[in-house]
From TrEMBL:
Family under the similarity heading: Belongs to the FAD-binding monooxygenase family.
UniProt keywords, alphabetically: FAD, Flavoprotein, NADP, Oxidoreductase
Transmembrane stretches, start-end: none
Source taxonomy: Eukaryota, Fungi, Dikarya, Ascomycota, Pezizomycotina
Protein name: Uncharacterized protein
SUPFAM superfamilies listed in its UniProt record: FAD/NAD(P)-binding domain (SSF51905)
Molecular function (Gene Ontology), one example: oxidoreductase activity
Cofactors: FAD
InterPro entries noted in UniProt: FAD-binding_Monooxygenases (IPR050775), FAD/NAD-bd_sf (IPR036188)
Flavoprotein listed as a keyword: yes
Length: 647
């Protein structure tokens, strides 16, 4: 049996008796159900406080780094109150859209503006500067445009400061660094049909100055404002009563901890009792540093992370040049090979990346072209997924028991859910941190802490005095809302209809996930009706090139006249039908332990009559490479099938 083979390989892997947590399929299903039941709750996705939408908590969302940058005045950056292309978002998504629009669509950097609420380039890599921060995907495939820039990452998994500075480097190389307008938010987009352009209301907020508002017109707009923007906090009694130092991990305060983004020597913690709430991917990276420097560290856990090896190491530049990047097209080839490992269930003969990501089973998120084609095939498909996944999860759980010395702590750190239910974590020091005498795991058995007092956190009646409280509680779910909600703005399209209203009722009406029938000249960046990858930067980069192609072709068709480009109603319907036809492989995400992939279990509550709308609104269920092949074939046809260009 597959299960028996998996268990045997786990034991060989450890060269020891690390068998606790290694179970057969029936026991795994029992434990998975128990873990899921702990986390199910009636308020699901609304259980968190949205810091950006709540006046009492907005200070958690503030930019702690903006004072390091000379922010250009928004009015000076729009002297004529116009731009040809406005890109909303200056993270790596917005950067790739800017590169594609400049290089492919011929838009001059002087006619392009890229705005962001942050004070600089980088998106999540601008804001996140906590100790231990690094990418969790091999940097040779994660960082975009490496072949074009010739940049060589210093480590297999680049650290945060290098990634942020690389973002700045790309902006300089492609000459749009001076086109950026920071600390600026788009409040409202309104389509002006007669003029064939967008009216955009902008507000710039610079600390210590009154807000500056301006209304501009832009012929084209791209919404590329990422998926990890808006902080969320647990709605705990007494949170605002706490008198000690407190911050969110995505707004790390080195003034409180000591150290800096370049030097994680957290000297100010040596006499401090610290609590960190959350054990997701960010916490996994920061906890070893907190454990090293804190007088005492409390790790508050609702659900354990599944933490596999990372195997971090410096880049050998000779190996990089002579082997990894030896031939043209190397990065795309490496990415294609990377994707094959978890979008088909079949391993390619050669593993170019060779990391633990390529051992994961992510088919319900990444898609599978060989997945089920009818509801009747789902039970067998689910069973096959479990057979593929169980050996790895046994290995991950076995790694905990081999590493963590205290048996009770090790038991609580074992993850009981399929790999695809939460983003897997990879780290070389995380589990070892729990062997330190100054580290205590406070497992809540799937519940929230009871309350926060003026100087402590209370869990199951136990009062734990603390000096510093850190929230590692993540962000707004990336698949909830619309592009309007992702940016906390209003988008009003044809006939005065809002995107929020139309999408909530009917779902999106896009072609390839990049243009919606009701919102002309507005280029989207997924994930709705497109695809995704564990390396989200690749996905958004592919969409940027697709948008640039569509814009170039539309300009040629318009012959120099003002135009509106959008899918036809028929083209959008046909694409939605294709997404729906491929949606079944993603069904395994329903029934997962609550997390941001299923909006804390909210997907399980979708009424039957709305399920087809949800399915046609979702991801391309045949996987990222199949999606890319489809849109490339569409471009090769050269006739812009399904797209209307109206002058």
């Amino acid at each position: 049996m597959t299960t028996a083979i998996g268990m045997a390989s786990d034991q060989a892997y450890f060269d020891g008796d690390a068998t606790k947590g290694v179970v057969d399929a029936s026991e795994a299903q029992k434990r998975y159900g128990e873990e899921r039941a702990k986390r199910l709750r009636a308020d699901a996705g609304t259980q968190f406080i949205e810091a950006s939408l709540n006046e009492k908590y907005k200070h958690f969302q503030e930019d702690p780094w903006a004072e390091e940058t000379q922010i250009k005045d928004v009015k000076a950056m729009f002297p004529d109150n116009r731009s040809e292309m406005l890109i909303i978002g200056a993270g790596f998504g917005g950067i790739q859209y800017a590169v594609s629009m400049i290089e492919q669509a011929g838009i001059s950097p002087k006619n392009l503006r890229i705005i962001d609420t942050a004070g600089g380039f980088g998106g999540t890599w601008y804001y996140n500067r906590y100790p231990g921060l690094m990418c969790d995907i091999e940097s040779y495939v994660y960082l975009p445009l490496l072949e074009e820039t010739g940049f060589i990452p210093k480590h297999r998994y680049s650290y945060g400061e290098e990634i942020r500075k690389y973002a700045e480097h790309v902006a300089e190389k492609y000459n749009f660094a001076d086109s950026a307008v920071f600390s600026t938010k788009a409040e409202k987009l309104t389509w002006i049909e007669d003029a064939k352009e967008w009216e955009v209301e902008l507000t710039q907020r610079i600390k210590g100055q009154p807000p500056t508002s301006i209304t501009i017109r832009s012929t084209f707009v791209a919404t590329v404002n990422g998926v990890l923007n808006w902080l969320k906090l647990p709605d705990l009694p007494g949170l605002l009563d706490y008198k000690g130092d407190v911050f969110h991990i995505a707004r790390w305060n080195y003034g409180i901890t000591g150290g800096s983004p370049d030097d994680p020597s957290l000297l100010k913690l040596q006499d401090k009792r610290v609590a960190i709430i959350g054990t997701g991917c960010s916490a996994v990276q920061a906890i070893p540093h907190l454990a090293k420097w804190s007088k005492h560290l409390y790790v508050v856990q609702r659900t354990p992370a599944a933490v596999d090896r990372r195997d971090q190491k410096p880049t050998d530049e000779n190996e990089f040049r002579d082997t990894i990047a030896a031939k043209s097209g190397w990065q795309r080839e490496r990415l294609r090979n990377f994707h094959q490992h978890f979008t088909t269930g079949k391993k390619p003969e050669v593993n170019l990346v060779g990391d633990q990501w390529t051992e994961t089973v992510m088919l319900p998120i990444s898609g599978n072209p060989e997945g089920p084609k009818s509801p009747e095939e789902l039970p067998a498909y689910f069973q096959k997924l479990q057979e593929l996944d169980l050996p790895r999860q046994n290995t991950v759980r076995g790694r905990v028991t081999k590493t963590v010395k205290d048996a009770d702590t090790a038991e609580k750190l074992q993850a009981w859910y399929p790999t695809w239910c939460k983003r897997p974590a990879f780290h070389d020091e995380y589990l070892d941190a729990f062997n330190q005498k100054n580290v205590t795991l406070l497992d809540t058995n799937g519940k929230d802490p009871e309350k926060i007092t003026e100087n402590s956190i209370v869990i199951e009646g136990k009062d734990c005095p603390i000096d510093i409280l850190i929230f590692a509680t993540g962000f707004r779910a990336p698949f909830s809302g619309t592009p309007a909600e992702k940016a906390n703005m209003a988008i009003i399209g044809r006939n005065g209809a809002t995107m929020t209203e139309l999408w909530s009722r009917n779902g999106p009406s896009t072609l390839h996930g990049v243009l919606d029938h009701n919102f002309p000249n507005l280029f989207l960046s997924g994930p709705w009706q497109s695809s995704t990858s564990p390396n989200f930067l690749f996905n958004v980069g592919a969409l940027s090139k697709h948008c640039a192609y569509i814009l170039t072709q539309a300009k040629q068709k318009a012959g120099g006249k003002a135009f509106a480009v959008a899918p036809s109603a028929e083209g959008a319907k046909d694409w939605g039908d294709q997404v729906l036809m491929r949606s079944l492989p993603m069904a395994a995400i329903i029934g997962c332990t609550p997390g941001y992939f299923n909006n804390e279990g909210e997907l399980d509550k979708v009424p039957p009559e709305f399920q087809p709308i949800m399915a046609r609104s979702g991801l391309w269920g045949s996987g990222i490479e199949d999606f890319i092949a489809n849109i490339e074939a569409w471009r090769n046809e050269g006739n812009m099938q399904g797209v209307e260009v109206q002058v």
